[in-house]
Amino acid sequence: MNKILITCANRITPYLAQEVEELGFKVIAEYPSAIETQGSFHDTYTLNLYLRTANRVLYWLKDFVAFNAEDLYAKISELPWERYLNPESYLTVDSIVDNPTIANTLYPNVKCKDAIVDRMMHKIGRRPNSGPEPKGAMIFLYWKNNDVSLYLDTSGEVLSKHNYRKFPFQAPLQESLAASIILATEWDKNTHFINPMTGSGTLAIEAAMMAIGKPPGVLRTNFAFMHYQEFDKKIWSAIRRKANANIKKKLDIQIIATDINPEAIQAAQANATVAGVQDYIQFKVCDFRETPIPSDKKGIILLNPEYGVRLGQEDALKDTYQAIGDFFKQCCQGYTGYVFTGNDTLAKQIGLHVNKKIPFYNAKIECKLLKYDLYEGTKKKF
Ligand SMILES: C[S@@+](CC[C@H](N)C(=O)[O-])C[C@H]1O[C@@H](n2cnc3c(N)ncnc32)[C@H](O)[C@@H]1O
């Protein structure tokens, strides 16, 4: 068993920890934007394939002390790189560095790459080509003060992109954030998922992928783990085959995505097609108040309205937020309503009692997922 560090965006850790545990791994430690678990190198295939909320899966190699770049070079040279790396592969080094002797934070990447390729030339007379694109093997270096941790990055291209959004519309949510928002709701995948103001469809597509059990990694052909000596193609093929075999072909619930803008629905449908979930989502061009709300199996209604920072202006949006409150009260009884917004002033316009406020960041903007219990009849009766 080896240490595996899985990184994520700020405030996503609880949802990442939930996913990691559901995959059968133990969460050893939680940090502001990462969790630590344990597993074998082959376990990183499963984590990369299934995780919806992660950024990178890092397989730990070594911790050591380095006071300057020369120390770093010497310590990195001691590792058996000829056993880890394929000389035919392509090598990238990435790092987070905060050391008093380092002014240019890209310099440690060069020293690390030099230490690796010099050692490989010395030991086997061959070395991988290197460069900045995340297309082959990737070494990740964390250097804080004098403490260094070195990892094999097994993801390469970040996992937060789920590879279906080929047609973005205005202000799309990052796919991993959309997945985290859904995990933060109480939706159990057996009830309806209604997503007015769907934009490019991220929330509805993530919900459909979760409902049918389609891991985001099946939409991807290249991961960094494929470029290490230890990669076992047979094990990877078996994990992928099992994942594909477990994808449901039929859903007993409705996933409904609507938007007032026909171009948004066009983009959402095209993205859903890339994700292979177009048959599980009902799309409609309409004002959010005309979204069809099924009366059986009541589930959740989740909206991500504009909030006046990137799109639209605050004043113009006040009426929209008031109308969301009216829509919840009049048309969505028995459902649980959720609004994801970065604007508290606008959120107050909804005018309903907020049952829960769950904090998030959307890039650098502080956001909240607001929960509204939309009782049928009076609360007391419910
Ligand atoms: C912030 S974007 C949603 C982004 C989306 N979550 C995504 O990931 O692509 C808000 C969306 O609300 C839609 N919208 C604005 N006013 C609306 C209304 N009255 N009825 C329905 N949709 C509306 C806009 O067309 C826009 O696509």
Describe the structure.
- The chain starts with a strand and ends in a 9-residue tail after the last strand.
- Helix 5 links the parallel strand 5 (90-98) and strand 6 (129-130).
- The model has no long low-confidence stretch (mean pLDDT 95).
- It has eleven helices and 15 strands.
- Helix content is 31%, strand content 24%.
- The chain has helices spanning 13-22, 43-50, 69-77, 81-84, 107-124, 175-184, 202-212, 233-245, 262-275, 314-331, 344-348; strands at residues 2-7, 29-31, 34-39, 56-65, 90-98, 129-130, 137-144, 147-153, 193-195, 255-259, 281-285, 300-303, 336-341, 356-362, 365-373.
- With 382 residues, the chain is α/β, with parallel strands linked by helices.
- The chain has two domains: 2-153, 2-Layer Sandwich (VC0802-like), CATH 3.30.2130; 175-212 and 248-373, 3-Layer(aba) Sandwich (Rossmann fold).
- Helix 3 (69-77) runs parallel beside helix 5 (107-124) and helix 6 (175-184) crosses helix 7 (202-212).
- Strands 2-3-1-4-8-7-5-6 form an eight-stranded mixed β-sheet. A seven-stranded mixed β-sheet has the order 11-10-9-12-13-15-14.
- It binds S-adenosylmethionine (SAM).
- The site of S-adenosylmethionine has 21 residues, from helix 7.
- S-adenosylmethionine binds at residues 169-173, 196-197, 199-200, 202-203, 259-261, 264, 287-288, 304-306, 320.
